[in-house]
Design goal:
There is one protein chain. This protein is an alpha+beta fold and 159 residues long. It has one domain: 60s Ribosomal Protein L30, Chain: A, CATH 3.30.1330. Helix content is 29%, strand content 30%. It is built from 5 helices and 7 strands, in the order ββββαααβαβαβ. Helix 4 links the parallel strand 5 and strand 6. Helix 1 runs parallel beside helix 3. Bound molecules: magnesium ion.
């Protein structure tokens, strides 16, 4: 069995008038994430981890923010495409681990739903999708609630 590990990072600004979508789940908050697609920063970091594991570049290469085709795109659909790409090369996800760094809102009540959405999209068991949430202890731009960032690692396996 072959294994590959990938690392993904993403950050988006918090702004008024946008929805806050994390792992495909719409979370009630007075601010949302800005971006060309739905700005689902969690899903973006996971996709970059998947691509990185196979040295396939990053999501900007596959879904350029300059392409109107991806305006407002549902990131779960992009995730499905990245999953199909790694599968076409003979790889599958063993597990994902991720950390969402956000000062507010409290994300703990929504983590189960995010895990379920991502697991369903990737046809994985829920115990293979790790999502943790932490604050930035009020430090820096994330601590000032100017944005939300996510770190993710993905382990791929191939027979
Ligand atoms: Mg992004």
């Amino acid at each position: 069995m072959k294994i590959r590990v990938g690392n993904g990072y993403d950050i988006h600004r918090l702004v008024e008038g946008r929805s806050l979508i994390l792992g495909g789940v719409k979370i009630p908050h007075h601010l949302g994430l800005d971006g060309h697609s739905d700005a689902d920063v969690l899903t973006h970091a996971i996709m970059d981890g998947m691509l990185g594991a196979l040295s396939l570049g990053d999501i900007g290469h596959y879904f350029p923010p300059t392409d109107p085709k991806w305006a407002g795109a549902d990131s779960l659909l992009l995730l499905k495409q990245v999953d199909a790409l790694i599968k076409s090369r003979g790889w599958q996800i063993n597990n994902i681990d991720s950390v969402i760094v956000a000062e507010r809102p409290k994300l703990k009540p929504h983590i189960k739903s995010m895990v379920a959405k991502l697991a369903q999209t990737l046809t994985l068991d829920c115990d293979r999708v790790g999502i943790k949430a932490t604050t930035n202890e009020k430090l820096g731009p994330v601590g000032r609630e100017e944005g939300i960032c996510v770190h993710a690692v993905v382990l791929l396996v191939s027979d």
